[in-house]
Amino acid sequence: MSERTDILTPVGRLVQGDLFAGSSTGYGGKALTDKNNNPRTEWYVGLAIPKTDPEWPALWAKIQAAAAAGFPGGQSQLPTFSWKVVDGDAPEHANKEGAAGHYILRMSSGFAPQVYTAGGAAKIVDPAAVKRGDYIRVYGSVAPNGDMQKPGVFINVNMAELVGYGDAIQSGPDGAVIFGASQAALPPGASQTPTAGTPLATGPAATPPAGPAAPGQMVGGPGTTFPNPPGAATPPAGTAAPGVTPAPDFLGTQAATPTPPAGPVMLPAAQYTYEQYKAANWSDEQLRAQGLMQ
């Protein structure tokens, strides 16, 4: 008989798996199936618990008791018994982040675990709210697997509590380790600075950096209305706001000949100021050739 024993783990670090994303494939990319050969999804969590945690001995005793009860013939004493507990100091695991000095519980479930904030105050539904590397407690169960050919235990994850945040653990190799080990040679024709035609920003529409508007640049866009500040009087009709030069027809006077703007003049096709293009190493010749400046 395989009785289930409920467990509440000490606080550990989520070092493997995901609380929200299940997998439909197992080792070697083989599709997971149930006993009727139907496709199934499994949620897996690797929880690293410090070996020095004072709560660990009691949890380990529960796992051992469940194994002994399920295999009264002493199968749990076999070296091949599957405990679903990994020694993080073993040579094959010690170099993995968060493993050394820990026991790692390999927990799984056929259903998505329920995830809560500290103290169980609220349920967490955003998958981005808990990442690999954060600290959690897990409520689950341990039960013998009932397989006399491959005896072991299952450690199931039912609920998890987000206790604290930790540094993210990235899956796969680190880019700094892979590319930082040697410097790539710059091929002929390549430049380490943006060239003409290189976008200054990514996205559907580049937004220039915040700051004062350049001469001739409209602040707020066409049709933008700026109300008077609270408590400010509305200027009477026919008067100009301070610092603003009214149009000649507004004043009813003859317009003076406009003074040509000093310096380069950007054309309507330009999305940025002259200074921004220069900061990106564009030359005047390139700007004119692209129809951005007259």
Describe the protein in words.
The structure is a single chain. By secondary structure, the protein is α+β, with helices and mostly antiparallel strands. Among the domains are: 5-164, Nucleic acid-binding proteins (OB fold (Dihydrolipoamide Acetyltransferase, E2P)), CATH 2.40.50.140; 263-294, no CATH class. It is built from five helices and eight strands; from the N terminus they run E-E-E-H-E-E-E-E-E-H-H-H-H. The protein has helices at residues 56-70, 175-180, 248-251, 274-279, 284-289, and strands at 5-8, 12-17, 43-50, 85-87, 102-109, 114-116, 135-144, 153-164. Strands 1, 2, 3, 4, 5, 6, 7 and 8 form an eight-stranded mixed beta sheet that branches. A hairpin with an 8-residue loop joins strand 7 (135-144) and strand 8. The longest helix has 15 residues, at 56-70.
Keywords:
294 residues, alpha+beta, OB fold (Dihydrolipoamide Acetyltransferase, E2P), 8-stranded mixed β-sheet, 5 helices, 13% helix, elongated
Q: Give the strand tally.
A: 8
Order of helices and strands: EEEHEEEEEHHHH
* Percentage of residues in helical conformation: 10-25%
Low-confidence segments = 201-256
Strand composition percent: 15-25%
Average pLDDT figure: 78
| Estimated radius of gyration | 33 Å
CATH structural class of the domain at 5-164: Mainly Beta
